[in-house]
Write a structure and sequence with these properties.
Strand order of the largest sheet of chain A: 1-8-7-6-2-3-4-9
Number of strands of chain A: 9
CATH architecture of chain A: 2-Layer Sandwich
Distance between the termini of chain A: 40 Å
Radius of gyration of chain A: 16 Å
Structural class of chain A: alpha+beta
Largest interface: A-B, 32 and 32 residues
Number of domains of chain A: 1
Oligomer: homodimer
Largest sheet of chain A: 8 strands, mixed
Bound molecules: zinc ion
CATH superfamily of chain A: Endonuclease Chain A
Strand content of chain A: 25-35%
Number of helices of chain A: 8
Helix content of chain A: 25-40%
CATH class of chain A: Alpha Beta
Chain lengths: 176, 176
């Protein structure tokens, strides 16, 4: 059945190391449980990470704000696995402290940003078939404190127009 | 077929008087075209207004920011038509100049707001069956200038959890 899921935030803080560790480390870890003091159950953030990490071929990100370290690690991990990652972001937010954009660029991920106006989207498209979108900016502040929603939609009626919007923005923004 | 629609913003400025006029005035207007200088075609804003104005029984609004006058008029019109309108909003934004919340309250619409935290949702539920949600804050600035998205979804898999989220927030926030 096609995926249809809704996540609400704020999300309790949980350990996401098992999701974000590389496969060899994860295999080692599975024999010895993580010693950290955080809860290790599911949370809205861990569910969001799982959906992102399901990417096998492509990931488009169109994000006003991106500073959450766990989400940054997930995107970098996908890039290292050979997934084609493309990111567009808002130039005003990009310069702020804690932005993940610099890390992504240094990892070799393609990032473009607007020169004017206000790019307020917060969506991701996984393998051209799964849309992840909502009110949530990808910041720790929003994830842990705000009332937010994220829809996960596997339906071409929504994915196709969002892909077209991504391609419009990708063409319009200058590569830098 | 169930509604599945995506709106992207910014929206060109168009005249929405025909949509927002009361029925008698609208009937009179249909014989004489509106004399204003704005374009009179469809736009993302006019499509959003049409979806809202389709409400016959209930409208739940959960909005971080609400200052767009046309959307404020649409909500007031629905209230006058006997639709049960309930609004929750963020207290920080509510106090800003141009907020529609004061108008809604003076019209007799029930409004509740949070006391702490950050209510960042931007969704509406029409007749408990149509979900309208996305990145768009209901401000003229966002509608006319920002890159934004709105999904319109008629699918219980999404509507039911959003209704439950609305009822949680409605109970939690103080009536004032
Ligand atoms: Zn741990
Ligand atoms: Zn006009």
């Amino acid at each position: 059945a096609p995926v249809s899921e809704v996540l609400f935030f704020p999300s309790p803080v949980t350990c996401t190391e098992a999701l974000l560790a590389d496969p060899l480390a994860a295999a080692a870890a599975s024999s010895s449980p993580c010693p950290c003091l955080l809860p290790h159950g599911e949370s809205a953030l861990s569910r969001l990470l799982r959906r992102l990490l399901s990417a096998r071929r492509s990931l488009e990100l169109c994000l006003f704000a991106f500073s959450c370290p766990q989400l940054g690690r997930a995107v970098t991990l996908l890039h290292r696995r050979g997934v084609r990652v493309r990111v567009v972001t808002d130039s005003d937010y990009m310069a702020l402290t804690g932005s993940q954009i610099g890390h992504l660029r240094r990892a070799g991920i393609q990032v473009r940003h607007d020169e004017r106006g206000y790019m307020h989207h917060k969506f991701a498209i996984v393998d051209q078939k799964l849309l992840i979108t909502g009110s949530l900016n990808w910041t720790t502040q929003a994830i842990q404190n705000n009332r937010e929603n994220v829809l996960i939609v596997e339906d071409a009626a929504y994915v196709t127009p969002f892909l077209a919007e991504f391609e419009r923005i990708w063409k319009e923004y200058n590569p830098t």
